[in-house]
Write the structure tokens for this entry.
Amino acid sequence: MNFQLVYKPYGEHVILVEWPAEIREDILTDLLRFKSDLMWLNIENITEVRTAYHSVLVVYSHFETGLKEEIERLKSIYSAKGNKTNLKATLWRIPVCYDASFGIDLEIISKVNKLSVSDIIKMHSDAIYRVYFIGFLPGFLYLGGLNEKLSIGRKATPRLKIEKGAVAIGGHQTGVYPSASPGGWHIIGNSPINFFNMESETPCFASAGDQIKFYPISIKEHQDIKALVDANVYQIESEVIDG
């Protein structure tokens, strides 16, 4: 399927390509395919390709001829879909402790959404989420696929400090704070693993298109896993799947 894309300049030697402004898996797959095509072609003057919910930012060292010609080349690449290699992704299994000491907003969600806390935990951990992009903070995964019954708006007054590893819900999305920061999402649990490590060859283990599956753990298991993470010996469970 080809979408009607919009191509526009976005600063010097940068082109923004936009899909319909919706959070949809078919749009994510299409734009990741387009990015894959650009990377596969290895075009010399393209230095970086960044993706978001429904857009791709193409950064050039220079335009070989001009903006119009570069846009026409992008249109041609999108239409051709020349790279026939199957997109691969990774399913990551992430431990989360939903104990009330971590899930400080579980009761609020329970009241607003008229769900029991146990139902919230089950719905959140039953789903498989898709990584749409990484942003806000290094290693912050924007995850789509939240059960609609769990959707809740951002807090009217954001907290000044959210703990590292806090698992949260904001609107129709869920995510994990990779480091302590201010934040306005509702907190439902905590994961003991690192989502960003500057000293690692791959600072963020996940990429756009990957999948995330949370699973509940106890406080004791949280402490045990954190000890392994701190000792740098913990391995996140994962498997490669067709993207």
The helical segments are 25-41, 67-80, 106-113, 117-126, 219-230.
